[in-house]
Every structure is written in structure tokens, then in C-alpha cells.
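This part of the workshop introduces the protein records we will be handling. To make this concrete, we reproduce a full record directly below:
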Amino acid sequence: MNKRKRTASISPPPMKTQKVLDSYTSPLRTNALFEAGQAKLNHVSNTSSSASAGASNTLKRTIKLISWNCDGLNKYLSPDNTTLDKFITRRGSPTRNTAKTSFLTQFLAQHSPDVLCLQEVHVSSSKRASLLRRLKSDAPNYEATCCLPASNKHAGVVTLCIKSLAVKHTMEVDWDHEGRVLIHELDGLTLFNVYCLNSSDHPWRDATGTIKGTRAERKRQFQRLLAQEMLLQSAEQPVVALGDFNISRFALDATPGTLRTQETHVKNRREFNALFGKFVDLIREAHPSARKYTWHSRTGTSEARVDLILASSDVQRTVCDTMESVGRGQSDHSPLFAAILIPSQQISGQLFDQC
């Protein structure tokens, strides 16, 4: 998949290169909430189609997006036996049995996302080739892309897109060197996979190792750059950003009495809500008064909603929720999901997916 860096300057994005992927039909969804949303979608789509019959060839299809801070991806993958298998094969012996199904393979089979956005994968860029090999083995029906830090920091994001989604272009940004942002352009929708910094008074270092203020200051700078990028992309087509934003927006988003109230956190929260006020918080929109937590302390004493799905107002959605009842392995974060409508194209009486 083609990748290029996006700069922080305000300018029209360059022309995109079409990427044609192998055809694959998504398996049947088993999630009850998704099925309920699909029924709702069918009703809306049928009504819309009847009202505009003959006016346009464009139809809609729905895709299921899941975001999850997995807190280290390696433990959920099958081992990379490439080197050992070559060694054994050279000596005339069969390769080892790797039939055991990985957690990731089981997760994909159970939830059937069209797009899975993973954050905090804990893999450095030096391990990129090995990571992509393992992802290809464990998720053969998906196209994997990753943005990884040069060092072995607790960062890195990975996106898995079902192969029936023709991703036109995937980009990184030149204002991040820690593996925190991937941008995927589909036909009719731009997706952001995001892992924002946590806030602290510890020093933050740039790509050269030079201290450039605190992590709290860098977090606010990162938020401004991300909001600018999302607004720029949303001028072209609808935008959805999924990931761990490392912020609880309101008191409702934390266990009572645990919302961080130190001045730094208050400032972060105030600025975040102002910057992203033009985008819809899909979980909060769907559940305006529910305590939908996505982070769970390992001591069991506190929880918070720090993982978000933010969308431009023109994104059509049917259902979205947290997945707190889903097995989350060894991560301290729960996944969350949304069902989004995107365009398909009607040609000569047949429906061809274009995204």
C-alpha cells in the first residue's frame, strides 16, 4: 500500500493513487448491536432510495469499524518462525506445527470488522517486516499497514482493512515521529487511527533526542496538529478518527471522584473540547448519559472513557458502542465500534463496492 508523509502546512492534499485490493466478502456479522443497526440502516437506505430514485447512481453500504488499544500486539499474534523454519527445512525436516489460532485471528473471526484500528502496539520500526509477516499470516483477509516508532517506546499504531475495501491512499504525518497517526483515504471517507500522548510533567524529546518541553505541552501541540489535519481532510470528504485520545472529556467520562482536576489536565481538556468541537463524539451522542468506560485500572479502583470515535457532522452512522463485555486479553482497554455508511456505485444494474 502506498504511503506518504503529510505535512502540517495548510494546503490541499496531493492527488491520490488508487490501490486495488483482492476481492473478499466479509463474513456474516454476529454482533447483535451491529445487526440491529443494520436493520435500521436498511430502513433508512430504502426510504432514501425511494425518495431519490432515478436522481443518482450512488448507493450506500455500511462498514464496521473497531478501535482497540491492545497494550502490546506481539502477545496476540502467532510467533514468527520464518528463520527457524528455513533452518529446519534446509535439514530435510518438516516445519513446526503452528496450527494454534492466535488471539487476533479469533478476534477477527468473532467480530468481523471491516477496519480494525490498533494502538499502543509496542513494536519498533526495526521489527516492521516481522510484524507485517505475522499479520499477513494471522489476518490473511486483511491488508495491514503500520506506523511505528524508531525506538521501542509504548506507541505504534496498526490498521487492518478488509481486502474488499479499496483504500486509495495511506499516509503518515511529518509532525509525529512516535508512531501515533495513520490516515487512510477511502472513496467517500477518510479514517484516522490515532494514539495521543498521555499528559505528564516528564520531558518530551523530539526526533533528535532534544528536550522540547514537557509531555503535557507536547500533548497540546499534538492535539492542535491533529485537529488541523482532521479539519483539512474533512473539507474534502467525511472524516472519522478512532483511537486512544488519552483524555476524559467530561466528569461523566471517569469513575465519580477520579477525574483529573490538576491545572494541566483542566487546560488539556478545555483545549481539546474547543479544538474538536466541530466533530461528533459518536459514543457520547449514542449514549448521552451512560458511563461508557474504555480504560480500566489494573487495580480495579478506577475507570475512564479515553478511547473515542470522532466524526465530522456529515458522516452517516447507524450504531456505535463500547465493547466492555468483550474479552480484551491482557489490555487495560476495551474495544469500541461504529457502523458507518459509505458510498457504493451502481453500474449497469450491478453493485460494485468502490471503497
